[in-house]
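Our consortium's second objective concerns turning raw sequence data into structural hypotheses that experimental partners can test. To show how far this objective has progressed, the report includes one record in full. It was chosen at random from the queue rather than selected for favorable results. The single chain below, 101 residues long, was entered without modification.
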Amino acid sequence: MAKLSSINKNERRKKLVKQYAAKLAKLKAIADDTSADEGDRLMARLKMAEIPRNANPTRVRNRCSTTGRPRGYYRKFGVNRIELRNLGNKGLIPGLTKSSW
């Protein structure tokens, strides 16, 4: 089980990303528009720099939904490799079978 503080920090980051997503997308579109005036593009970049760092989507960490473990995460299932095996052996993940040969 991951530290509760790490899980909570990641949840706060997800909340900030959601809150600033529209504003960040709008400013990024202005900053990337090569046909726009250079002054407007510069102002957009400066306003982007004022947005909190934790509002950037790259700072959100994929974590297991049951344990909070950050490593060995499977996006398709939303859990880490250990939990995937445990839930798969119990038959709780539809369509997943343990292979043996």
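The partners drew two points from this record. The mean pLDDT is 94. The chain has one domain: 4-90. Both points have been shared with the crystallography group to help prioritize constructs.
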